[in-house]
Design goal:
CATH architecture of the largest domain: Orthogonal Bundle
Largest sheet: none
Distance between the termini: 56 Å
Strand content: under 5%
CATH topology of the largest domain: MetI-like fold
Helix content: over 70%
Radius of gyration: 27 Å
Structural class: mainly alpha
Number of helices: 14
Length: 300
Amino acid sequence: MATATIAGTSSRGAHAPRRRRFMARRSLSRLPTLAVLSVVGVIMVFPTIWIVSTAFNNNGGLATGNLLPTKPSLYNFRELLNVAQSGQPVLRWLLNSIGVSVVAAVGVAVIDSLAAFALARLHFRGSKAVFYVVVSSLMVPFIAVLLPQYLWFHWLGLLNTYGALILPYTANAFGVFLLYQFFLGVPRELQEATTVDGAGPFTMWYRLFVPLSMGITATLALLTFMGVYNDYFWPLIATSTPNMRTITVGIEIVAIGQYQTNFGALMALTVISVIPMLIVFVFAQRRLVEGVAMSGLGGV
């Protein structure tokens, strides 16, 4: 027994140098990939560093072209307060964006879930045709429906209202398609069990399908929140008064001066506008990753 143990130990000792050489070769083979990824990472992070640096740089430091401020200050944020005091409701822009994004995200989560449930689990005449029409709308670019949508809201008298900012986002074909695929994978035995218990379609959706799809629905709501919060073009043409503008349009208003652009105030407002998105992402990151893995979006 002792001889066998000694032999096994010597055998492992003989393979150790070979294993170390293999690991060294594998590490060397990964160096080009790591180098490329490092360069790409620096390129992607550089604009963010420049924005934050400019926001905390005074006008003198900005003129020198230094990437990092030699004397960080809140000068640009004070300039932003002057912009707000001059009649531009900066805080109102931020609250408008947050409110519109939250309401739109909740609306998409509810409406798309109901539509996907009806199309996936309630078989009625023409359900497949309706689903294909909904999915085919994904191929229609937004610019193609911009004019009809604008005229429709003008006819309803909703331009320059919160209705114009919220209603276009409260349902989308992508969310219906995403939840439709998930609902198809729910075992039919569960649906039949709720039917035996006397549950109607709405009760079945609320008690069975909503709890099962909380992860992917939360992912859809988060993606909608980010998309609505970052949208610029529709809020620009759907609103006409300063109090109805969103933060993305407000950034453009601050950027355009009569004679020159106040880059410091512009970058300060950009940093402020990123804070809500950063908070949402930090607290919802785990849910987002789980939802992407569950829905299969990672392979798209």
